[in-house]
Design a protein that fits this description.
CATH architecture of the largest domain: 3-Layer(aba) Sandwich
Number of helices: 13
Number of strands: 17
Number of domains: 3
Strand order of the largest sheet: 7-6-8-9-17-16-15-12-13
Structural class: alpha/beta
Order of helices and strands: HEEEHEHEHHHEHEHEHEHEEEHEEHEEEH
Radius of gyration: 26 Å
Largest sheet: 9 strands, mixed
CATH topology of the largest domain: Rossmann fold
Distance between the termini: 57 Å
Shape: elongated
């Protein structure tokens, strides 16, 4: 494509400027299979490499995407016609379990070893062996959880963007990370909040072990989220609310525990007598909403004897934010008297960052204004997701 021309020229010149020993070209290509005949075609890869040669780029390593592993004969054919050593033709078959398996496959194909050899760093080769590299062993254990889990934990994701496969991608990943920590695979019940009614609540949630309400904007689907939160609270199902999920948890508590039936967020009802969620003070007089959200990492003070402290083991944390509305401070005392725990605040104590229910009331009911999913990793699951999944497992174990 014409859009790629400047980039191709840039990487061509890069090798000239830095020297061939300091620049490695890795080319990802497609090796399709004609389904009817079952024939694997290497022509697209050959043509792709020839097009690169026209602009002065000779790939050093080929990563060949195919629906199954390439045979040695096919690798030799690609090697011959693309002028790439056969040991540098890397097979990258389709993955049907988890994307986390990709690094394991590349390691088995010796991709890491070939890169080390190219740059003359053979002294590091032992570090990449299974025997001496604990990270590789840990990564294999991550993959093993998807192939041979100890069990399945089902988490309901209640949102309004469920039909979009990537809408909550970071949440799905973070939940998987939490499952990996205890050797369990996490499966999702994706529930459109607009479909939740009083009549179908039990049917919708009877087989799940935890309920999560993620972030979002706008009034559509809010009532369904409130019903889901109420069901989780009253039936003592582990609950995790994030961003708008925390705001909905506050509204639900106000309506059903404080008995303020009109309680709402000013985002949804500007005339409510109990605006338990409202615009942050610095946002009130801003009419142009572009670029005005509270974005990025902010410190949060964690209160003692809380689920939050139990997860983090620290009284000061930093988490990423993306919101414009906040808990209304003038209602704090009412909520705390009714049993809600404000477990995290901004360092100046002006913003509520996290809420929860005491352990004696609910096994695990936590909601945060920040987005913990942004800091979760496969080998280092976020503490809140780890704890959420652990308590979901405990809930499952009761039945």
């Amino acid at each position: 494509d014409i859009e790629s021309v400047p980039f191709l020229e840039a990487i061509r010149q890069l090798r000239l400027d830095l020297g061939p020993e300091n620049v490695l070209y890795i080319h990802l290509t497609l090796v399709p299979t004609i389904t009817v005949a079952g024939e694997v075609k290497t022509k697209p890869t050959q043509h792709s490499v020839k097009e690169l040669l026209k602009v002065g780029i000779q790939p050093d390593i080929l990563i060949t995407r195919a629906n199954k592993p390439l045979s040695l004969d096919l690798k030799k054919k690609i090697s011959l016609f693309c002028n790439v050593p056969v040991n540098r033709v890397i097979s990258a078959p389709d993955i049907h379990s988890t994307i986390y398996e990709v690094p394991v496959i590349y390691h088995k194909e010796n991709l890491d070893d070939e890169i080390i050899k190219y740059f003359g760093m053979q002294d590091l080769s032992p570090l990449f062996s299974d025997e001496f590299n604990p990270a590789l062993t840990q990564w294999q254990q991550v993959v093993d959880v998807f192939h041979h889990p100890k069990g399945i934990i089902k988490i309901a994701i209640v949102g309004k963007y469920i039909s979009l496969s990537d809408a909550y991608r970071s949440l799905y990943e973070a939940l998987w990370h939490g499952g990996i920590a205890i050797g369990h695979k996490v499966e999702f019940e994706k529930i459109d909040s607009e479909t939740i009614t009083e009549r179908n609540l039990h049917d919708v949630f009877q087989n799940v072990h935890g309920i999560l309400v993620p972030g979002g904007f706008g009034t559509r689907g809010i009532e369904g989220k409130l019903k889901a939160i109420q069901y989780a609270r009253e039936n003592k199902i582990p609950f995790f609310g994030i961003c708008l999920g925390m705001q909905c948890a506050v509204i639900e508590f106000a309506r059903n525990v404080l008995h303020w039936p009109d309680a709402n967020s000013t985002e949804f009802d500007s005339e409510t007598r109990h605006p338990v969620i409202s615009l942050m003070e610095e946002q009130v007089n801003i009419t142009d909403k572009g670029g005005t959200m509270r974005l990025g990492a902010y410190d949060c003070v964690v209160k003692p004897d809380t689920r939050l402290l139990e997860a983090y083991h620290s009284d000061l944390i930093s988490e990423r934010h993306r919101h414009r509305y906040e808990f209304t401070n003038r209602f704090r005392e009412d909520f705390e008297k009714a049993g809600l725990v404000i477990s995290g605040t901004s360092p100046d104590d002006t913003l509520v960052e996290a809420i929860e229910l005491p352990a004696k009331i609910h096994p695990w009911f936590v909601a945060t204004q920040f987005h913990p999913e942004f800091q979760s990793k496969p080998l280092k699951p976020h503490p809140l997701f780890r704890e959420f999944i652990r308590h979901a497992f405990e809930y499952k174990s009761k039945f």
